[in-house]
Predict the 3D structure of the following.
Amino acid sequence: MLGQIDNQPEICNVLGDSITLRLTTEQTDGKYSVAEFATPGGVGQPPHTHAWDETYLVIEGELNLNIDGEATLVGPGDCYQVKAGTVHAPTPNGEFCRYVMVGRPGGVESVFKALKANEKDLGDMNKVVEIVTKEGVTIAA
């Protein structure tokens, strides 16, 4: 069983999201990653897919996962699992949403770290797509 993690979590403030990397693949032997999102209304991710599963737990506000283009609302205290390969686009349904996302297997944090490392290029959506594509995310057409 994994014990207490003493490392200070990294925070990635990218594209309007504040993402706290609670547990990384290195800390969980590759089994999973945990990220906490604080997302204001009007900010969100475009429809996309990837090769890992994600489970969302909403802490505050309401999250619209937009599964396959259909509104999929998740409220405070509720969970929703998005299987690998499913088109989804997490966005707050309202003014603000705080949620935890668990990616399995681990490694999803590489997407957020890559965006943070290329902060100067985030105003160019073509570069953003290039960055996330290198990290295993496919933007849906």
